[in-house]
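ugh ok fine here u go
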Amino acid sequence: MSSERRLVSFDWVMKQLLRNKADFVIFEGFLSELLHDDIKIKNLLESESNRESKNDKTNRVDILVENSREELIIVEVQRETEYDYLQRILFGASKLLLEYMEKGMPYSRIRKVISISLVYFDLGQGEDYAYQGRTEFIGLNKKDILKLNSGQQELYKTEQIADIYPEYYILKINQFDDIARNTIDEWIYFFKNEIIKDEFTARGLKEAKEKLDIMKLSEEERREYEYYLENLHYQASMFESSYKVGEMRGKKEGIEVGAKNKAIEMAKKLKEKGIDIAVIVETSGLPAAEIARL
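structure:
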């Protein structure tokens, strides 16, 4: 039997299983590979989606953790197209800044927020499948990057201004070409294909392969997973159906607008030639009041 067995999707794991510290090693592995850091999860915090029932029908899943440096890391999976998604992740990071501010707290204690999005739709235009967004201040004239002075470096425990501002990562899963060039690519391969190859060495994947084996789920967990997959198919069908209906409605409206414009042009020409209004009404199909305004 092949060892490259299909595994449970990672978004379901986020939604259902990553609720105890024994499973943190999986999530820590992914975060460590992406952020090129040794990430240790201190706490699992309440996020928007885990306030809801674990059986809610949604294609958006997020998880919020606090690492050992008290930074806030939110990881979100979005499966369906959302055109204002970039603004929404900006809002999410800003909301976290406010939620974790205490009354009278100095600005120097504002938490670092890291927003990580796993998107399964084509967000924006770009040739890559993994993007990082950081805030830098660049000189308008000399093009130098503004840095922290020595006092600020001591205060913030970092040298770069970008390190104190929210940071964004967008992984466009469906744009990945299935070639694992490095360890974070191994994770993205898993996100896309739900398979972990034997030769993969990225942190956390060994534990994920053991934990996420569908064959090792309990009967209750398997039922919940099947229910979750059914919801994904349902939501995808609803999105496709609404898109088709909108497309058909748009074509119909376009035809109607075109016909109306032709009628108006005809009425204008007939009116310019001095044709009687009653004749124009009968010929163009436009009401007399509208023809009078032309």
